[in-house]
Design goal:
This protein has about 950 residues and is mainly α. It has 46 helices and 9 strands.
Length: about 950
């Protein structure tokens, strides 16, 4: 060990063990002030670096800003070039918020997901990349000063580090009031705690000897052990203090005492520091006192600005303080406080007026400084007697914290700002509005309402309306629509476009489309005149949504205008929302394609992972028509996993629903109900419960039982009738087609669909055309109706095959198109997209028509050279891939339209040619 690390061999061994291989982990090092945490971390850093690990250090300071220690550590090992790494692309903008050298994205605006969770996922992804070639170790000191969001981030990381080859070591004092968030780290089941206990007397004696460089008399060892209570810092300070006071001197025979130590009063650490400060030259003494007022993070540049001295004078003064034992130099040569306790002791030696005068002088010097911590200047202004200026600075600091996703930190800053701004009513309203908005982002609606209720009675005019809008928006976010309307009615200016736009949203939720449209139209006109593009975008969104079913063309026009306005003014969140709405309109066949992908790219650029995940779900819904249910299943599984990690239970449930559908289509129907049980657990909604009937109907139809499928769809549609706000799902069209195929004389389903606004969905319009073709096949030629349905579903081949195959039982005489040609075309497409059950259904129809079933084409992909050298054929490669997917022989036979015996032969050949002994061995060979 190094000369100053004594008695910590077990603790160091535990930390080194955590940094050597194995799954990632987090270790919490605790101890009282002066227990040697920083010295232990420095030795750990030296040893881990020597073992080939990538070590990065950071530390928290009071008022250091959100995520300070994590950002300080990561910026040392994560150069901007890493932003282009593929696995980090979804997190680039998120990481840029804490890594100032990374390319920044647009501001996120709102947070669909707890931003600490998003940042946690981003940091885990970064650690995975950093740990590709060597273990990464983050060493974070002084966590007792970390903000709540940093501590919440560390708690999140602790749960995910097992998947990463990285270690995070966190050190914190345990001899003062511990923040709740730090207590959570102490209690976390996946965090190991290493406690630095007082040194035993033999180690105290060893440390004392190393401090002075020689053996000490027994009475000195006993005295230092008793007075220091085994705290390493005090051991070193007391020993040095005895030398400074002349109580311990060195002669030719070694160290000896000049006075009796036993029973005497011990000089406190405070007294030792005051004695050292008093011995400094006046200029250096003033410099040290100023440094103490500036805080425990010693910054020579700040000292130069505040003191008015030049850099050389400041450097000389700091060197003198080092010689006096008040400051020290680290390995890099940077000057720092010997210990935070030393800084506190210097500060304690100042009277309140002295501290206030230094703080006022420092605040004046630093207030307009570029790159100076705003929180530090605000603290100096408050201590220097300018509370309103301090509050204004804290308001800006809180806004930056919100932009960084540090919502808990923002609330703490704003609470302090409220107290300081008591003398400025206008500033107090601005702070309160920011508090309400921060509460709303955390869905802490009750607290947002409480803050508004305190401020509204004394507010007037524009400030009153600003408070009312903020309170109403918080209520809308918490789904308290009646309460939101009350705030707007009682306290809002009815002619204010912000009030009208928000009231339009409330009316839309109440399904009062006429009122919503009127308010939104008025708000749009007012916002355009007032030059408030964000309000204009909000109003246009309501216009588009209100018109979606009654006038799809006008709806799309409103969304397109909102997208143009948002793009022209750099309003990324509103642009994403407009593109998402256009994507929904695309699903209904009313807008051009590609908007969802564009919205997703923007969301990722802005670091809005929650929004990007929601858009991914929307894209899955849209691509089922082009890729099939089996084709989108892996993407739905990934979406469900991401949504679960982000806490988006609604999106997770919907994605799992798509997975369940894919299982039915893939011939694994037995797995669907357990998945829907998970959906019920996540979101117990009638909409999702209707999915059970839908899946049973699909299963029955794929088995060729149209009547049972129709009965199951009856149950599904009956439940959907009770949910007028449910989206216009294609299941309505499926139901109408299947009911008409079962009984062409029953016009009820077609009449219901014809009068329903679910016809806004293009699939449902196509289904109605197909059903009409079946019903009227004897009266008129159905060709035009079939052509219309095919036209509507041209971009969605899977859905076209789905509905057209339903017509086959009524297509025996050729009046409903060329059934054999359709079945052969569908069979080839479905096999190519893994839709084995639908392909099998097509094959059955062809056999019933007395026609041959086309054999699947040989695998088009060339066999890789390493497998070709073993004699593996194209067909065997196809079987190998399916074995690697976990399919059994029966499933492979169904997928490839082969007999089970043929598949068994292919598997046997593969085992023989590759020299493997099991299917598990084959799995590792699949390219």
């Amino acid at each position: 060990m190094g000369p100053t690390l004594v008695g910590r061999s077990e603790e160091l061994a535990a930390l080194l063990d955590a940094c050597h291989g194995g799954p990632g982990r987090m270790v919490l090092v605790t101890g009282c002030a002066g227990s040697g945490k920083t010295t232990l971390l420095e030795e750990l850093t030296r040893r881990a670096n020597g073992a080939g690990a990538v070590v990065a250090s950071g530390h928290a300071v009071p008022g250091g800003g959100p995520f300070r220690p994590v950002a300080e550590a990561l910026v040392r090992v994560a150069p901007p070039a890493l932003a282009d790494e593929g696995p980090l692309s979804p997190f680039r903008a998120v990481l840029a918020r804490i890594l100032p050298t990374w390319p920044a994205g647009p501001a996120p605006g709102t947070h669909l997901v707890d931003p600490v969770v998003v940042l946690g996922e981003a940091v885990l992804a970064l650690l995975r990349v950093l740990s590709t070639d060597a273990r990464t170790v983050l060493v974070l000191d002084d966590a007792q000063w970390a903000d709540r969001d940093t501590l919440a981030l560390l708690e999140y990381l602790a749960g995910g580090l097992r998947e990463v080859a990285a270690t995070v070591v966190v050190a914190a004092r345990d001899d003062q009031a511990v923040p709740d968030a730090l207590t959570a780290l102490h209690r976390h089941g996946r965090i190991r705690t290493v406690v630095l206990r007082p040194l035993p007397p033999p180690d105290v004696a060893l440390l004392a000897r190393r401090t002075v460089g020689g053996e000490l008399p027994p009475e000195v060892d006993e005295y230092v052990a008793r007075v220091s209570e085994g705290v390493p810092l005090l051991v070193a300070e007391l020993t040095a203090g005895l030398v400074e006071s002349g109580s311990l001197v060195r002669d030719g025979n070694g160290w000896r005492t000049t006075s009796t130590l036993a029973g005497g009063l011990s000089p406190s650490h405070l007294a030792l520091v005051h004695h050292r400060v008093a011995g400094l030259a006046p200029r250096v003494r003033e410099l040290v006192r100023t440094a103490a007022v500036l805080g425990p993070e010693l910054d020579a540049d700040l000292l130069t600005t505040v003191s008015g001295s030049d850099a050389v004078e400041v450097a000389d003064g700091l060197s003198s303080a080092v010689d006096a034992g008040l400051l020290t130099r680290n390995v890099a040569g940077d000057v720092r406080w010997r210990h935070a306790l030393t800084c506190g002791a210097v500060l304690a030696g100042l009277t309140p007026p002295e501290r206030g005068a230094i703080a006022a002088r420092a605040a004046e010097a630093l207030d307009d400084g570029v790159g100076v911590r705003r929180a530090l200047v605000a603290d100096l202004q408050a201590r220097g007697g300018r509370p309103v200026r301090a509050a204004a600075l804290l308001l800006d600091e809180a806004r930056d914290a919100v932009a960084a996703g540090a919502l808990a930190t923002a609330q703490e800053i704003l609470e302090r700002a409220v107290v300081l701004a008591a003398g400025d009513p206008g500033l107090l309203v601005a702070i309160t509005v920011e508090r309400i908005q921060a509460f709303a982002l955390q869905t802490r609606t009750d607290e947002a309402i409480a803050a508004a209720d305190v401020a509204l009675p004394t507010a007037a005019g524009a400030e009153r309306t600003a408070l009312a809008v903020a309170a109403a928006r918080a209520c809308v976010g918490g789904h308290h629509f009646d309460e939101a309307g009350r705030y707007l009615t009682l306290f809002g200016d009815p002619d204010d476009p912000r009030v009208q736009a928000l009231a339009a949203h409330i009316a839309l939720h109440a399904e009062d489309l006429d009122q919503a449209l009127a308010l939104a139209t008025s708000a749009a006109a007012g916002a355009e005149q007032a030059g408030t593009p964000d309000v204009l975008c909000e109003a246009l969104e309501v216009v588009g949504r209100a018109l979606r079913r009654r006038d799809p063309t006008a709806s799309v026009a409103a969304f397109e205008r909102a997208e143009r306005v948002a793009a022209g003014h750099g309003l990324t969140p509103w642009r994403i929302r407009a593109l998402a709405e256009l994507g929904a309109s695309e699903l209904y066949g009313a807008a051009p394609a590609g908007r969802i992908a564009e919205a997703q790219a923007l969301a990722l650029d802005a670091g809005m992972l929650g929004t990007a995940t929601a858009l991914d779900l929307q894209a899955i819904a849209m691509t089922t028509g082009t890729e099939g249910m089996v084709g989108v299943m892996p993407r739905a599984e990934r979406c469900a996993d991401r949504a679960g990690r982000l806490g988006l239970t609604g999106i997770q449930a919907h994605a799992v629903m798509f997975v369940a559908r894919g299982r039915v289509h893939a011939g694994r129907a037995g797995e669907a109900d357990p998945l829907l049980d998970e959906v019920d657990r996540l979101v117990p909604s009638p909409l999702y419960r209707s999915e059970r009937s839908h899946n049973r109907a699909t299963d029955a139809w794929l088995d060729g039982d149209d009547e049972r499928a129709a009965r199951e769809l009856d149950d599904c549609v009956a439940l959907l009738r009770t949910l007028p706000a449910a989206p216009p799902a294609p299941v309505w069209g499926e139901w109408v087609v299947l009911r008409t195929v079962c009984d062409p004389t029953d016009g009820g389903p077609r009449a219901e669909l014809r009068e329903s606004d679910v016809l806004v969905q293009a699939v449902n319009r196509a289904a109605l055309a197909y059903a009409d073709a079946v019903a009227h096949v004897q009266q008129v030629g159905p060709g035009l109706l079939l052509a219309e349905g095919d036209r509507l579903l041209t971009p969605h081949p899977f859905l076209r095959y789905w509905l057209r195959i339903m017509l086959v039982p009524r297509a025996v005489d050729g009046r409903l198109g060329d059934a054999p040609a359709l079945l052969r075309e569908a069979h080839a497409w479905l096999l190519g997209h893994g839709e084995i059950r639908m392909a099998r259904l097509c094959a059955g129809h062809l056999r019933r028509l007395g026609l041959p079933v086309p054999r699947p084409g040989r695998y088009a992909e060339v066999v890789p050279p390493r497998l070709r050298a073993l004699g593996v054929t194209g067909r065997e490669l196809q079987v190998l891939r399916l074995v690697a997917e976990g399919l059994g022989n029966v499933e492979i036979a169904g997928r490839l339209q082969l007999s089970r015996r043929t598949v068994e032969t292919h598997v046997s050949n593969l085992l023989l040619k590759t020299g493997t002994r099991s299917r598990e061995g084959l799995t590792g060979l699949a390219p």
